[in-house]
Design a protein that fits this description.
Layout lengths: L2 H81 L3 H84 L2 H14 L3 E5 L2 E2 L8 H9 L4 E2 L6 E3 L2 H5 L5
Parallel strand pairs: 1-4
Antiparallel strand pairs: 1-2, 3-4
Helix pairs in contact: 1-2
The chain binds zinc ion (ZN).
Amino acid sequence: MNPDLERLITLQRIESEIDEARRALDALPARHAALEASLGDQTATLESARQRSSDNVAARRELDKELAAVQTRLRRYKDQLMEVKTNKEYLAMQHEIATAEQEVARIEDRLLERLLEADALAGEVKAAEASLSVARTETAAQRSALDAERQRLDSLIGEAGARRRSVADSLSAEALALFDHIRSRRGIAVVEARDGHCSVCHVRLRPQFYNELRGGDTIFQCESCGRVLFVAPQAAAAPPAP
Ligand SMILES: [Zn+2]
């Protein structure tokens, strides 16, 4: 194979590695953000459960106060009942007492509801605390995994950059200029030709042109997209397509 063509193929392979590593690197901040957002959701769930729990405590305190007030009133009515002089006053007082007793029962029902709710909320708080604690541990591990990934990608890019320079230095000036020109316009400069087609723009190559490509002696460009074409050694060794 033409040595420059071989180096161009290697150069493209290295550049593709670098591109892929850069894309992975660029995706890291979003992956970090997704981790933090998920942890934020768990924190918000816990805060909401705690808020509802403290609202419940406040509501029960309020009901306790109401209950005490009604019970005080009820005791006063009962004391007054001993001092009434007329039957009419007696009946009126009994009516007040019955009303107050109903109110006590109503407040006690509401208190019981709130107590049941308090149990459920305590369970919710406990569950949210447990899952937040698990999430914190997992997030910390995932954060370090992402940091390790960043280091790996950084060093891969550095190491591939060194390989790229060494291959570029061994290329002829014309071949390197051609590579840089196509790469700046097309992203990928060197692509495989397969089954008589350019594997990127898919144009069908003339049979004579494809056969020359299989020889690998010359640097040919796709007549449609302009990229440098090559036929992989295995495909080149196979008998020509009928
Ligand atoms: Zn093409």
